Amino acid sequence: MTSVAPTNTDLAVDKNPAAPEKPTAPRRFSVNLRQSGIYIAFALIVALFSVLTGGDMLQPQNISNIIVQNSYILILAIGMIMVIIAGHIDLSVGSVVAVCGAITAVLTVNHDMPWPLALLVTLIAGGLIGAWQGFWIAYFGIPAFIVTLAGMLLFRALTLTTLGNQGIGPFPDPLRTLSNGFTEGYLGNVGLGPLGGADLVSLLVGLLAVAGIAVTQWRARVGRIRYQQTVDPMPVFLLKIIVPSALVLFVVVQLARFRNLPWVLVLLAALVLGYSLLTNRSVFGRHIYAVGGNLHAATLSGIKVKSVVFWLFVNMGVLAALAGVIFAGRLNQANPVAGNQFELDAIAAAFIGGAAVQGGVGRIVGAITGGLIMGVINNGMSLLNAPSERVMLVKGLVLLAAVAFDVWTKRRAGAAR
């Protein structure tokens, strides 16, 4: 943003010590379509399928199924949106999921390695795969599209070689629990009136999440006021706390009524919190946005662009390895065709969640929301017994609409200037 030198009039006003500072006035109610559009769309899609399925969409077991069945895509979406923010893309994550699941299976089933050590070895292998691709992209200068396209073929071939073109299983119980298991009712159930009983620990976790939402919103508001920036009117501010808090409590209560919190949801919550802090609060996170927003300016400002890109792909490899373990544990078998088209779902989740095609824009929470939109569409169409070709048609149209919406909002913002 080009800075404008203060005029003489401005200087004269600033030199007047008696002039009181004007308090920051709350802004009128307005909706930032670019930031809020994805959440509005998600709510509308859930409401639509709830009506079409006669309420089956929001049943406790179905909500649990949506989370568990899409957990590995959501994990991939976290890494993918960071790569896309930096202006790159990764087409190999589906094959990396397959080869890392195969590595875990060979170590635990064929060689009886303890599962914690096997998990560690698998994550290291994913990091090395990411480092291999990151080297060619960051330091050798080959476009990420080409490197990861080659990786898609290489690691799929390595999967077939590792497995001997056959499935390997079953997995140890702890790995299966991580993928499909649920937390225990540690403090017993409490009554919820007509809703029945629910696990007290799960409800406390939900209340803790609500408290986190409230504190985060309040700190952001106080920070804006301190720097004399405009803030939302109090009713709008409270609405921004009440709506997501009600959604979180609804989901937690429904999960607690079924079989408590899925362990994979606990893992996802930790990943979302950690990576949100990384991208929003750390120097490395700011460097990611700078590299994707303006590569030339980032280079001139002293950012180690090559290092940032390299570590982004290392991180993507580790997350793909984790997703591979989750997916193989869910199936209780490492399969040669595992991870097929996962890269497309992860990329779609990132773009639907608000990532810009040119890079420099995107949020972790947005990618998770985009992945959940894809999951809700899959689940809702399945409940309606829709054929697979119709599901693909709807998902393709949603992806196209999301990218078109991004382009439209950019043009609108440019015209407003």
Quick overview:
The chain is an all-alpha fold.
The CATH architecture term of the largest domain is Orthogonal Bundle
Unreliable parts: 1-25
Mean pLDDT: 85
Considering DSSP H and I runs of 4 or more, what fraction of the residues is helical?
over 70%
Major β-sheet strand ordering: 1-2
Oligomer: single chain
The CATH first-level class of the largest domain comes to Mainly Alpha
Shape: globular
- Helix- and strand-based class? mainly alpha
- The ordered string of helix (H) and strand (E) elements is HHHHHHHHEEHHHHHHHHH
Q: Mind telling me the C-alpha Rg?
A: 23 Å
Largest sheet: 2 strands, antiparallel
Q: Count of DSSP E strands?
A: 2
Number of domains: 2
If you consult CATH, what is the topology of the largest domain?
Answer: ABC transporter involved in vitamin B12 uptake, BtuC
Terminal Cα span: 12 Å
Strand content: under 5%
